[in-house]
Amino acid sequence: MIRQTFTVANPQGFHVRPTKTFVEKASAFPCKINVINKGKKVNGKSSLSMLTLGIAQGDEVTLEIDGEREQEAMEALGPLFGQIHE
Fold first, then answer.
1. How large is the average pLDDT for residues 35-39?
2. Among candidates 4, 3, 29, 24, which has minimal Cα distance to 83?
3. Residue among 3, 15, 41, 85 flagged as catalytic
4. In contact, 75 and 47? CB cutoff 8 Å
């Protein structure tokens, strides 16, 4: 399992359009993908679940990926949030 935290850069946060893009890309990978925001963890392959997180600009979002091709998934999905949080 790998984890990385990102700071959301999009001024509108993570609304319907970026969520759709994220879920489409996440669904292409066989691994388990979770997104964590403000202590709430959801399935990153579910648009509805993702939207319940209410991700706003400046939020620190953690991407947790486990399974086959996890590193490739992190490299594809992480940049959709914005900058890596150090």
1. 97
2. 4
3. 15
4. no
For the stretch 16-39, what's the b/e string if a residue is b when 16 or more beta carbons lie within 10 angstroms of its beta carbon?
eebbeebbebbeebebbbbbbbee
- Which residues, in sequence order, are CB contacts of 35 under 8 Å at separation 6+? 41, 42, 44, 50, 53, 61, 62, 63, 64
Across the chain, mean pLDDT equals: 94
pLDDT of residue 39: 95
Q: Is 15 a catalytic residue?
A: yes
What is the reported pTM?
0.93
Using CA atoms, how far apart are residues 28 and 77, in angstroms rounded to an integer? 11
